[in-house]
Amino acid sequence: MFPEPIQKFIEIFSKLPSIGQRQATRLAFYLTRRPELNQNLNSSLTALAQDLKICQQCFLPFKRNGVDLCPICHNKEREQKIICLVEKEIDAFSIEKTREFKGTYHILGNLIDPSDPKSYESLKIDWLEKRIKNFPDKTAEEIIIALNPTTDGDLTAMYLERRLKNLSKKMTRLGRGLPTGGELEFADEETIKGSFEGRH
Ligand SMILES: [Zn+2]
């Protein structure tokens, strides 16, 4: 079989999303021929593990700088009482790119999977409720549900609407524009901007 370091690399890298055994094996041999790339990969993996922190309020990752909140939650000019709920970190960054949104985020981490009762808990809604109850009037100004228009996305949105309706003056969902089944992550800035403006 392969030398042990290669075997070990394959074992770990094949666990990554969209990389299977075959790709991991190819990568391993490619990297053995490219020691300089190997070095850079090494330091960027270390940086991912050591220089990032997860925001204690919205769960967005940010560069570690001695504070507990990400630059968005930390920014006094961002409207703390307008909260946009997204599935993944990358969705929040896609929305940030449009520079239209002046509120804050809450990263759910995943969507509801009807066959997995644990998926309800993993949305960290208790955290969000606590966060809103800390506002002086214990109510958010607006909660925007910005989930992908998929079956699970719609199911999750309906659950969130029911669960949070008494905690916000306004509850909106992104307007049309994102193709059905399409992903926020891959939508262009204009499309995201349009569906934000068309929220209802
Ligand atoms: Zn944050």
Please describe what this structure looks like.
The protein has 200 residues and is of the alpha/beta class. The protein has helices spanning 4-13, 21-32, 35-50, 71-74, 89-97, 118-121, 125-133, 151-164, 189-197, and strands at 52-54, 61-63, 82-86, 104-107, 142-145, 171-173. It has 2 domains: 4-50, RecR Domain 1 (Helicase, Ruva Protein, domain 3), CATH 1.10.8; 70-197, Dna Topoisomerase Vi A Subunit, Chain: A, domain 2, CATH 3.40.1360.10. The chain is built from 9 helices and 6 strands. A 4-stranded parallel β-sheet has the order 4-3-5-6. Strand 5, helix 8 (151-164) and strand 6 (171-173) form a beta-alpha-beta unit. The radius of gyration is 20 Å and the shape is elongated. The model has no long low-confidence stretch (mean pLDDT 91). It binds zinc ion.
Uncertain spans, ≥5 residues at pLDDT below 50? none
- Number of domains as seen in the coordinates: 2
Which structural class do you get from the secondary structure elements? alpha/beta
Q: Residue-averaged pLDDT, rounded?
A: 91
Strand fraction equals 5-15%
Q: Give the CATH topology of the largest domain.
A: Dna Topoisomerase Vi A Subunit, Chain: A, domain 2
Provide the spatial order of strands within the biggest beta sheet: 4-3-5-6
What would CATH call the class of the largest domain? Answer: Alpha Beta
